[in-house]
Amino acid sequence: MITKDTGNYLFPEGFLWGAATAAYQIEGSSMADGAGASIWDRFSHTPGNMRDGDTGDVACDHYNKWREDIQLMKRLNLQAYRFSVSWSRVMPEGRGAINEKGLAFYDRLVDGLLEAGIEPLCTLYHWDLPAALDDRGGWLNPDIADWFADYGQVLFEKFKGRVKTWGTINEPWVIVDGGYLHGALAPGHRSAFEAMIAGHNILRAHGAAVKRFRQVGEGDIGIVLNIEPKYPASDRPEDEAARRRADAQMNRWFLDPLMGRGYPQELEDVYGEAYRDFPQADFDLIAQPTDWMGLNWYTRSVPENAPDAWPVRARPVKQVQHAHTETGWEVYPPALTDTLVWLHEQTNGLPLMITENGSAWYDPPHAIDGRVHDPMRVEYLKNHLKAAHDAIGKGVDLRGYMAWSLLDNLEWSLGYSKRFGITHVNFQTQERTIKDSGLLYAEVIKSNGGVL
Ligand SMILES: N=[N+]=NCCCCNC(=O)[C@@H]1[C@H]2[C@H](O)[C@@H](O)[C@H](O)[C@@H](CO)[C@@H]12
């Protein structure tokens, strides 16, 4: 592998290098030891929802292989590991009784990480809502703000002094756009009216958890947003208007209220009669000050005006001049720099962390001669780390980078067909093999970017 340090892309001292996963995507054993079902157990077992009929029943079997996976993290030189907790493993009904065996899994994981010198970054919610709460309306029920804060309190108290960096909710936009607007993700609803309500309650739940954290927790807390910058397909006014609608519906819908600005005005244009406003007290709760913000970044898009494209009336124009990943996302690293600078300004200089960045490319189902060569992922990783470094040079307070993902895993309704891991998983044998991209990443971490 690369040995020389160019020194051109050295990151600040103390920059935090890690990798990220999510409970339902890697753990398996989702109903073991008293756990309750989540909406993803239901959704993945409903015929027609999942590519190849895949489910998270086994996934990467991380529930059993977590010790081996910590050793893998050490071989990757990881300084941090971003994981999520399965709410229904800890509280089978989502509220009330605690399942001590479920909580004990995360207790062992956190202690194992600390013993390995790896900082645990915990996400409270990464899409796997307890099914029992969905039966009570889930994100459509305003009571969920208190249910979520109560769940957060269990973890804040259990891991006080051991977990210092908390994320409340992973990607409100994907939860709502996928789960309530277009139906591609659990719980599979298709309603703009529900989308507005679910999105608002997700924000309220975030605020309630932050307030509770200030009362019982210790450390830093923030939220994790996916931001996909929008560049107009032309300088025609209708394309700029489409860009604004797309930017409002995907990027500012959640960011603006979190920063105390309320919903962007374009949202009413997007959702029409489904748009609704809410009491100011809600927006005061939502805009609780946070300590950091997570950015999940994959790609940009170039929208044009498209009156038939419900509800945003904008459609991305494929940028055929650039490579596209297996998920159809354009590879365009300069847009990451743009996003980081924009987010730095939008959050008035809040500390930022890239909580996810990565790419899906075709990898074989098994390693060959103990190796998995993934040149496209190597290139994506190198060029996006350079783009992140460029943002730091422009004054962005970027604190860390978590590669998505530590392992090939369940890519939600796309099943195991899309591999994002810097470590390959043979899903027949559960054998892990660090890919070339993982070997590079280990060197990047060891040199703090020096090898880039
Ligand atoms: N249209 N479009 N453009 C791209 C929009 C990206 C939205 N998807 C994400 O950010 C998800 C995030 C999730 O946390 C993780 O659980 C997923 O495995 C990764 C990979 O999919 C990413």
Automatic annotation (TrEMBL):
The active site is at residues 171, 356. Its EC number is 3.2.1.21. Substrate binds at residues 25, 126, 170, 298, 404, 411-412. InterPro entries: GH, GH_1_N_CS, Glyco_hydro_1, Glyco_hydro_1_beta-glucosidase. One of its GO terms (biological process) is cellulose catabolic process. It holds the Pfam family Glyco_hydro_1. Coiled coil: none annotated. The keyword Electron transport does not apply. Keywords: Carbohydrate metabolism, Cellulose degradation, Glycosidase, Hydrolase, Polysaccharide degradation. One of its GO terms (cellular component) is cytosol. GO terms for molecular function: beta-glucosidase activity. It catalyses: Hydrolysis of terminal, non-reducing beta-D-glucosyl residues with release of beta-D-glucose. It comes from the Bacteria. Gene3D superfamilies: Glycosidases (3.20.20.80). NCBIfam families: BGL. Belongs to the glycosyl hydrolase 1 family. This is Beta-glucosidase. The lineage of its organism: Bacteria, Pseudomonadati, Pseudomonadota, Alphaproteobacteria, Caulobacterales.
